[in-house]
Amino acid sequence: MEDIIVIVCIFIGLPWMLFHYVTKWKTTPSLTQGDEAMLEELYNLAKRLDDRMDTVERLVASENTDFQKPRLIADQEADNAKLAELDRMMKERTR
């Protein structure tokens, strides 16, 4: 009797469990085209806001000599490396 239970578990139970979780894995929600469009829009908005902040900081620095420089220096290559990588990936994706 125990042998039959072991055989049933191996040949029926394990494949059923495997197929069950494979099906669950394939039906999990992933990024839709709407989500990708929203992320691209947010990325472009963040880029525009960054440009605006650079402009505001330059204007304040030109009018006020006591203005403390921001922690990150605008257009410094070390600070913009990740942004450049994102730009490259976005261009590759839209091709």
Automatic annotation (TrEMBL):
The chain crosses the membrane at residues 5-23. It comes from Croceicoccus mobilis. Signal peptide: none annotated. Keywords: Membrane, Transmembrane, Transmembrane helix. It comes from the Bacteria. InterPro entries: Phageshock_PspB. GO terms for biological process: phage shock; regulation of DNA-templated transcription. This is Envelope stress response membrane protein PspB.
